[in-house]
Each structure stands twice: as C-alpha cells, then as structure tokens.
Specification:
Number of domains: 3
Number of helices: 11
Structural class: alpha/beta
Number of strands: 6
Shape: globular
Amino acid sequence: MAQELLSMRVDMQRQLRSISPTQLRTYDTCPLQYRMRYVDRVPTTDSPASLVGQAVHAALERNFLEKRHSGYDLDLDEAAEVYDDVWDARLPPGAACGTLADELDEAYASGQSVLELYLTEVAPRVIPHLIEHRFRFDIPGVQVQLVGTVDLIDRNGVVIDHKTSWRAYPESYPDQDLQLQCYAIGYGVFRAGSRIRPGSLPAPFFIPQVRVDVLVREDPPFVQQLHGTYGREDLEQFAARATEIVVGIEASQFDPFWQAPNRAEDPGVCRRCPYGQVCPASLVRDELLEDGGQD
C-alpha cells in the first residue's frame, strides 16, 4: 500500500499545473538532468561558477532596485558588500581546503572584477523600468502556465538578462535559448494585457527586443552584449517545443539528451551539468571524478 501511495504521489507531481523558464530550459538541455533535479531531487553543491553567478546577480539586482528610486548606481563598495554576503552564505562546507579553495579564490576574484567593470562601464547607461518582473502566460495546446521572473526591463522596453561565463557566448544564443524567449513573451503578455485570447501567445508586435549582457570572466574581463528579436515563426517554434517538453515531463520521458533524435553526444553538456559525477549516463563521469568535479 505504501508503495502504491508513493507511486500515486509521483504521478501526481508530473501532472503539471505550471512550469518555470528554468525547468523548461533544463529539460531542453537534458531530460535526465530534469529528472534528477525536479523529480528525484538529487542534492547538489554550488560550483564556483554557480557561486559567482548568484553573487553577481544579487549585486546587480540590488543596484537596479536602488537606481530605480534614486537615479544612481551603487558605489563599488556597496555592490561588493552584496556580492560578499551572497558568496559567504552559499559557500559550501570544507571550501577552504585543498584544490577547491584555490579554484574558489580564483572564481571569487574574477567575479569581483567583472562586476566592477559592469557597474563602471555598462550600468550607468541603463535606466531601469522594471526589476524582477513576475509574469505568467498559457502555453498553447496544454493546460499548463509558464510562470517566471524577468531580471530587468529598461526604459525603452528592452528585456535584459545577465549571465556570467568564463568565455563569450555564441552569437546565436538569443535565437536558441528558451529561457530568454520566455522572458520576452512574458513581458509581451504584460504589454498586450486583455488583447490576448486565452490560450494564445501575444502578437509579434507586442514582443520586446531582448539583450543578453554576458559578464565574461577572462583576464582581462569584458562584457559581451547579444541582441535579439522574435517574430511569428519564433513564437510558433517556441509554443511547439514548450508543448513537447510538457508532454515529455508528464509522460516521464527522462532519457539522457544524447539519446534523443538529432542530438549529438556533446561531452560539454555533461561537463556543465551539476550531476556530472553521479549521473549514470554521463559522457564524462570518469573525467570529472579524476578532476575532483572541477568545472
């Protein structure tokens, strides 16, 4: 009886009522990664790259919240304090020992440098309109809503997303990333208001331009800006892929990404995965174990 109840509970969890842009993107990257994160809830420890991303994101969020009211960016000391608070709160146990300590020190310094660069050279030109803007909209064809939060929308209505990375992103990133498309559609729904029919996406002229600011932690650091726009064909492709993902989740289709049709066995996907060391289908598990799990 207990096993039957557990099975029923798991099945109920997969009957989605809503899904986030992160969930959508995770499944699109690798269905097995989705299962480990959202179904099996396998615990993970923040990597140095993840720590940098969270700390920089928190500092930029505070900056633009303050700037919306005061008209001024934070000074560098205030931003560094936010960065440090998040870093210290998320630092994994035992991080001060061994090779991980050196990697964390390098990551911490590179995150500080690129944050200072962004606040000095890019943030002064950004006039914030909405920060951490919540949205929800219906995915056409399924009884599931997409619910999420946009980092930043500027005075011109451009959706701005922030990323940190060791290297520049491909120029095609805005055209391919489901999460960024969610942000654009989410704000488009807000702009269109009651002019959207239930179960439909907004017309293309409501969809804003998007910009990805990639804070690249090379030496020296730099900021890469990628711009994108979405038309009717992009919206149709998004709706089709989002529907496929919802159907796959509800049907418990959680095969590793490289078993899907037309997907290559790309080891880079597994290297970036937080479950690379424990995933039975990882393409680089032995490599990560020898490396101590370093990114």
